[in-house]
Write the structure tokens for this entry.
Amino acid sequence: MNNVEKALKRKLNNDSEMAYPDFDEMWNRMEQTGHTAPTLTYTFDSFTPHRHRNWRKIAIAASLSALLVAVPVYAAIHYNWGNLLHGRSGIQTALNQDLGQPLEQSVTRDGVKLTLHTAIVDENRTVILYSLEVGKRADNEFWNVKGVSLKSAAGGSSAGEYNFQQWDPKNQRYNGYFESDWTPQQETENVRLTVDHMELTSVQELELPLDITSPQMQTFKLDRNGLQDMKVQVFQQGKDKLMLSSAITFDSSIPKRWDNPQIVAYKGNKPVMSQPGGTFGKPGDNGEYTAQQYFSKADIPEGQTAFKLQYAQTEKSIHEPINFDLQLSKKKMESGTIKSVLNTPLENGNPNFTLEQMIVTPTQIRVTIRSEKKFAMLPYQKYFLSVNGTTLEGSRWSSPDQEHDLNTIRFERPSHLVITKDTPITFTGKYKVTIHSDDKTPQLLTDISDQKQTLTTQIGGYPVKWTYYKQGADLFVETESEDARFGGINQTHIGLGKERIIGKPITANFAGDGNNKAVDVYKNFKGKEASIYMFYYTTDDPEAETTVPLQPMTSNSEASK
């Protein structure tokens, strides 16, 4: 796999990427209807920082006449899946313990062979390992398995779906896995796995004469493969980082989901790694594809860096759905599964968040935390389990069907870890972020013009610098603080009541990301003054932590297999 494909493969696989919810629009709707809880923030495993997930339910297609090919079971279960399972150590643990269920069903379409090899099924999730043999392909091409879903004979369907694949140069095929929150309600259940279609895309590039020293909006005419034009604006993020905010307009005949464009910087002939925290795919006011990308200024020196627009172009699609009828069982996992009812507060004396349940399986440990209010953000941003002296780091996980007052933290289970009902397990939350929504003091911006003006105010005891200016007809308002413990202002609005104007965030800040600079834009602003209000701001306490014993069981807990 060449460097371009390595950099782009996670962008090209739509179903392996998580579509960020429109946090700002969600907040606007909630606030307008009287809710005051903050918007949701999701955190996922570090190896897939930007993942678009296909949430739609896929209908079961008509019966398919397919050739099922038998493959030796041992080879599939014991195949070395290598880096494919990076971040999914629990799946490799189950394979090492022969807890996988052999499937070995294959379908060939237009010379492309899809084989389901092994299922890993427990109380926490269903994972299916597959391979895709496509024959010869160009270095800049990438095949994708699209729209994978599960549906049980009883009518239940999967949600929280995720699939990921990578090229295996040794065996000249793709290896992949499909993961779902859905699990059999009984020990064994008949299900149908449907693949909506398979698609071949190629990586394309366009030169982008971007001037990173200009703060003005830059417009580039594209007129290629359905891409009409691109607008890019460069924002300073502190002293050492730049944010590139972009929006692409498409030809009306081109589906807006297909290309996943991004700006790639080249220093010499080598692509520059972008910084974490970027977002992709939020629709603009007129349906544009928008993105925010961060780069270290030291990595993209002026005059030594070339910028290109990279995107995926569909070369071929196999649209006839593929169905596999499977019988999935979690019987092998039963002896290693422990369910514990916790009902323990996350913090002593604070009833807002309660550790509700822990499920230990051979592949994973999941801890659920329930909040008193819907959409409430967990105060701690990092999560750890100490299991008999071994420390595991977890991540938040959410599916569209999950209750709005329930948060799930999942921990992958390494192969050496032995857990019984008597194994000491302690949960620790670190890096506390606190939301403050009680400050309704307006900031008065005066003499608004195209010249940048600044003022510094005290918010919660922290110095906050406000920078405001007009570009064309639009008013930009930037906020930031030199004190790293000030987490940032989430969103602003001008005026109060029904006549207020809500600012549109340019930046996409996440709780605990260490970046407190935010930029809001007010389109077609008229006037020379504005009273700016905050919805809320956050403060960070990186040293804060809470520790809660989960096992041995407390008097409020009970366990069962």
